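idk why but the lab printer keeps eating my pages so im just putting this in chat instead. protein + magnesium ion:
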Amino acid sequence: MKKILIPIDGSKASQQAAEKAVQVGKLLNAELTFITVVNLPSEDKYSYFGMTVENAFIANRKEMLKKLLQEESKMLDIIVRNLEYGDLHIIKKILTGKAADEIIKLATEEKYDMIVMGRRGFSNFERFFIGSITQKVIASAPCPVMVING
Ligand SMILES: Nc1ncnc2c1ncn2[C@@H]1O[C@H](COP(=O)(O)OP(=O)(O)OP(=O)(O)O)[C@@H](O)[C@H]1O
Ligand SMILES: [Mg+2]
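predcted complex ->
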């Protein structure tokens, strides 16, 4: 069975990518995996400069990450629930890390056949032709990438 990976950041473009992925998925009878990557700045950057971050900050960071994971997971549920995917097999994943790295890693390790994503996300800079995450994924993806102009 073909496997399609659909990175979702919640933007309109990513929702349109999700709808397109469902259409393509139906043609190929593919399995669809929707993934959202959550990122928080790491503590490493402070230790690099010889600074010690207060424990309270670290504890707070863990709490923040937990909350973010919960919220992103709700967002993904809502987006997927609104799709008319019929009896296609659907998987939802929330990962932490750098979005492009995680998308490429997953597509490579789990041998996806195609990635469907938005041309843009939440930035509205018209001067950029394409969002930075999409640009990185296109540059290093192990499979074809379908970019949706949302
Ligand atoms: N954190 C994320 N998790 C999953 N998919 C993402 C994430 N961020 C972006 N994407 C995917 O990448 C597409 C393009 O978003 P991208 O972040 O590259 O552009 P942007 O937000 O407009 O610009 P930038 O983030 O470079 O300022 C989105 O439509 C979505 O498919
Ligand atoms: Mg973005």
